[in-house]
Description:
Elements: H1 6-18, H2 24-35, H3 41-53, E1 57-64, E2 72-78, H4 80-97
Antiparallel strand pairs: 1-2
Amino acid sequence: MKLLSRIEEIILISIWKLGESAYGMNIREEVIKATGEKWLLGAIYGPLGRLHKNGYVKTIKGEPTPERGGRAKVYYKITSEGKNALSKVQKINSFIWKDIPRFANDQ
Length: 107
């Protein structure tokens, strides 16, 4: 299993947190909340495609709606492989940060 990139990690966590309502726009909003940075929707879909290709998420097609011009939303759901990848990253982060002193708040 290869390591997730930081944006893949953030997107995968966002999908897990959003549960049944994880689709492109909602994932983007969650990433914006998490990072405090503006993200174009297109910047989310590249990593989402990689996560899907690697088996970390699966897609579920919703029903077409008139407000979307008859197009269906594509929902994302984390797979067991995705959960395993997040678990690995969490362990690595815990280990690598273990002996780092706290940052001073006044810097």
